[in-house]
Design a protein that fits this description.
The protein is mainly beta. Helix content is 0%, strand content 47%. The mean pLDDT is 89.
């Protein structure tokens, strides 16, 4: 259930400084939880909150670092989901409000639109949802949107695990919401590209009901220039486009993905020598 351990209340954070809060500290009240969601609230002043999580057990090693959600939303989108042999996709839906909400999970970009029964998320609770349990969802790549039937009230996070050579490798990522006015960006930025050839390094989802044209550009001394061969790429309505980054001239470079309409853009880069992937969003321009 929801608790307010005394050890986590009234924590002072000096001006222009960082304070680390250990949620697994002995006696602090957050040990032994199968899953844990946290609401961090500033009673005075402004803060930025991030989570650093480390996992070590058996043949599995993991570390994630991500910012918290600064606000609740009624929609959360994911551009690059997977279902099939060797993949596991799990979503954690957190409702920190005082009222239960119903959430619809809709899968797009595959052979057909798929959905499941509404998900009831009790007040101040977390519900875990596995896309593998949806019988109408086919194998392969898909996009996902979680939508509430109420006011902005949830945060949704995805854990995508791929088993490579018997070793599970996971990436953790929060969904992308539309802006508070409901808009979605048409241009997304990446501060540094891949450092090695990567197939399907960029995953673009078109949420519109009309086709879009997508262009990848590189930032150089002469400004932003389209990448030859990656100009005007067609993407159908409610479809996914994967973009390979294979040219050495793009390695480590700042990139921009622009479209003629609205898009969501994830980046999926190779991770180390274990053939795993790390996932994160590119940075959206203001709609």
């Amino acid at each position: 259930g929801s608790r307010l351990p005394a050890a986590y209340q009234g924590i002072p954070i000096p001006a222009q400084s960082v304070r680390i809060i250990d949620l697994g500290a002995p006696g602090a009240g957050a040990q032994g939880e199968d899953r844990l969601a946290v609401r961090v609230e500033s009673t005075r002043g402004r803060i930025v909150a991030a989570r650093a999580q480390h996992f070590l057990a058996g043949n599995r090693l993991g570390y994630t670092l991500s910012l918290g959600a600064p606000a609740l939303r009624d929609q959360w989108w994911f551009a690059d989901g997977r279902k099939g042999l060797g993949f596991s996709e799990r979503f954690s839906i957190y409702n920190p409000t005082d009222a239960a909400v119903e959430v619809d999970a809709i899968f797009l970009g595959s052979t057909a639109i798929a959905d499941d029964e509404p998900i009831l998320v009790p007040a101040r609770q977390v519900v875990v949802f596995d896309s593998g349990s949806v019988p109408t969802l086919g194998d392969g790549r898909h996009a996902t949107v979680f939508s509430t039937r109420a006011d902005p009230s949830i945060v949704v996070e995805r854990v995508l695990t791929h088993v490579v050579d018997g070793r599970p490798i996971s990436s953790v990522m929060m969904g992308a919401p539309p802006s508070p006015t409901g808009q979605v960006a048409g241009t997304w930025y990446l501060t540094a590209g891949v450092d090695q050839p990567a197939a399907a390094a960029l995953v673009v989802f078109n949420p519109d009901n009309s086709p879009n044209a997508v262009t990848v550009s590189v930032v150089g001394p002469d400004g932003i220039q389209p990448v030859p061969g990656l100009e005007g790429l067609e993407i159908d309505p409610a479809s996914i486009l994967t973009i390979d980054l294979l040219d050495e001239d793009l390695f480590g470079r700042q990139l921009a993905v622009s479209a003629s309409g609205r898009v969501f853009v994830e980046r999926s880069f190779p991770s180390g020598l274990d053939h795993g992937r790390t996932a994160s969003w590119m940075v959206p321009a203001a709609p």
